[in-house]
Amino acid sequence: MFYLLFVILELIWLTFIIECSPHNRRCYLGTLAAQVKNLIEKPKKLEDVLLADALPLAGHSIFFHETSCPSTINSISKKLPTAEPKKKKKNYGNYIELTARQACSVESAAFHNSKTNVYVLYASPRYQLPNITADPILSAVLSYKNVHLRNVNMWTYAATTPMYKWLKGGKLFKSSYVFSHVSDFLRYLTLWRWGGTYLDMDTIMLRSIENMPPNFVGAESTYYLAAGVMNFAPDGLGHKISKLCVSDFVRNFKGNNWANNGPGVITRVMRKICDTETIALMFDPKRCKGFYIFDRNIFYAISWEEWRDFFEPEKMEKTLGRIDHSYIAHLWNKISGDFPVKVGIKSAFTTMAANNCPHVYKAIINHFSHF
Q1: What's the distance, Cα to Cα, between the start and end of the chain in Å?
Q2: CB atoms within 10 A of CB 256
Q3: Per the confidence metrics, is the pTM higher than 0.85?
Q4: Which residue among 82, 238, 315, 349 has its CA within the 20 to 30 Å range from the CA of 324?
């Protein structure tokens, strides 16, 4: 009863601020959900992660966050014959969408961790059109019973947490890197709420993490830890770390600094926990109170400066050799995302995709010319 009352009051507050909200905030407000009155068939809204029948299992779930703003209804009409938008008017249609590479990330996590539920949380509320399963990429991902697509309302998600008051202040939406910083906000909030595993959507899992320690992150370089792969227990040391991360995020947030609020947070927190500024010394879990910090070969064997090695055919064998002992490969989508990968050209990336997201890979080679 209390929670229902809170949700009602929250929706009233959201409606009040809608007209004075910048566009960046409007993107994430549930009250500005898909304007789909012109569609012949009405879409079904994704379940909210907090209101779904089955909640994530604390400490035993994998989370991805999709924080971009939606495409327009006009783009839906190109894919779905049931769409009939008015001409000369752009309506926002928040429909479910995953790029091929995002879908590969999600499938690889589900493929290697069959006992673990995998959640994709959409920060900008999304709808599922009646025939969305006709999308071969989504169909490939949803063929796994342990994959769940959910909406997440940031305000109700943050309610009763240390991040709620800060979120209502609006600083997040004035950031120069809103999508990235919303992702940073949600990853630490999710780990505070549930524990478990957070993964970036530009990763490919190469082997199961189900038997790994309950608390770990990975080093990205000799100077910084990375926030693209993190696993916290929902209680004990893991929850202590998540509380420190949430506190650091709120206290040190900088909207004009891309890395400060993601890798910067976990690096600062673990420097305190491990009582050292030197990353190499953090590899000893005893020094870090039982928290595991893995060297870069486990999750980030190929650095961001070397991102082309994933895609260049002549680098294939060498690159695959370098990730032979890795659990995850990070593709650095911020700089590699627009690099075209033609179907039929063999590379480390296409080899990883074929072996670790086989359903998505098959959908791509059967229906598209580029990955």
Answers
A1: 48
A2: 9
A3: yes
A4: 238
